[in-house]
Sequence to fold (110 residues):
Amino acid sequence: FKKSLAFSDLRHNGTIKLEAGKACSACRFNLDCALNKVNSNAIENSPITIFAGSPQKTEAEFSIGIGNCCRSIKDAYDVFVPGCPPNVNKIYSAILEGLNHDNCKKNNNL
Fold:
């Protein structure tokens, strides 16, 4: 797969932060498909950061590492989705898990 040269630090629907500067086209495509399945209203002000393409340590409130390239530090992420490329539905499930984590946190703070 061809590596991306310009896919770093993007925001999808203005809410989920993506760190995918070295992600291959297959990971980027499957990530985009998964993000397009999520209701944009449901992810408003989301704390989720998704990493793909190269392992990166994170201080994000809720982090998702996708793809085998992130496997070496999979324990640093709240959720790790393996695969080359990772499955769209598994990425989508990880995003929903992050959204549920955020909703539970908000409800506990009421």
Summary: Residues 88-108 form the longest helix (21 residues). The mean pLDDT is 79.
